[in-house]
Amino acid sequence: MTFGTIATWRMAHDGVVEATKLLKSGTNASEALEVAIKQVEDYPFYKSVGYGGLPNAKGILEMDAAFMNGDTFQIGAVAGIVDIKNPISVAKKLSEEKFNSFLIGEGATQYAKDEGFEVKEMLTERAKKIWEKRIEDMKSKQLNPYDGHDTVGVVTLDQMGSMSVGTSSSGLFMKKPGRVGDSPLSGSGFYVDSTVGGAAATGLGEDLMKGILSYEIVRKMSEGLSPQEACDQTVYPFHDLLTQRYGKAGAFSLIAMNKKGEWGVATNVEFTFSVANNTTEPTIFMANRGENQTTTITPITKEWLDAYEKRIKAPIE
Question: Where are the catalytic residues (predicted)?
């Protein structure tokens, strides 16, 4: 039977491994997706998602997350939620609500508490130290405050043909309190239709939300394009159009998987992702923009992985 998972960034690989085990055993797409994203949210060394994520300009860790069911189009989302262990689980729960399915700030946090979700101090000492260092560097070196927008986005396909998509992010480091990017916004940060496929985005939300790229990729797949063709023909023309109209385009990357378990990616930066299906074990790849509006994809080397692990766990001086 066909199944599959694709996720943004190397940080999602362990989650892809766990989701693949579940999908092989017959677990549904929604449960597998939640497990995959929780793996990332719970890991303290990933600076852009969940526990250990970097805070806003006031030192507060505000998190965004979204979930969508490709069978029913049910969507749940939270933005600016604080001190809740797994925002993706709150978003998934909210997708069951007919009304009030997208909550922000205090409302999102209170809902999570009322529903019994685990409350946890999500700002780690490590993340706080990075924030304090950035404040000092901004004063002494006139450093740009903004850094990091690596959302975890996941698409899953189960053996019954159902699909789900989800995102989770702590957003732009040093963002203004209340800032929300594309991650919890349907069509921009994510979209899925089980009869077609799904897509998710990572990158600078302020630019991603100008294009509704996740929806556009799914729409192109519905017209018969492969996931790779849909990604290439959506991401690169939009990058060029945004550069022409706006003067520049921030970093962004998109992933996609169709109902057959076929996958694709496109990016305007160096971008890692993890993917698996019924014919391929979980594998990490590197993607770059190639020639003629296409994407070049190569497997990650052991040396790259070793350097990555060393870098993310390096002591903060």
Answer: 151 (nucleophile)
